[in-house]
Write a structure and sequence with these properties.
Layout: E1 5-7, E2 9-10, E3 16-17, E4 30-32
Antiparallel strand pairs: 1-4, 2-3
InterPro entries: Hcp1-lik_sf (IPR036624)
Length: 43
């Protein structure tokens, strides 16, 4: 079983955007099930 990532976000005024996670120490976070990323390099 994979370990999910947890995300804490704030809006432009610094107020937290509350997610649905209820786990202790992660309460209010947004649990990420998957994500992708990429790197580009220009020469």
């Amino acid at each position: 079983m994979s370990t999910p990532a947890h995300l804490w976000l704030e809006d432009e005024n610094g107020s937290p955007i509350v997610g649905g996670c209820l786990m202790p120490l992660r309460a209010g976070s947004i649990e990420l099930k998957s994500f992708s990323h990429g790197i580009t390099h220009s020469r």
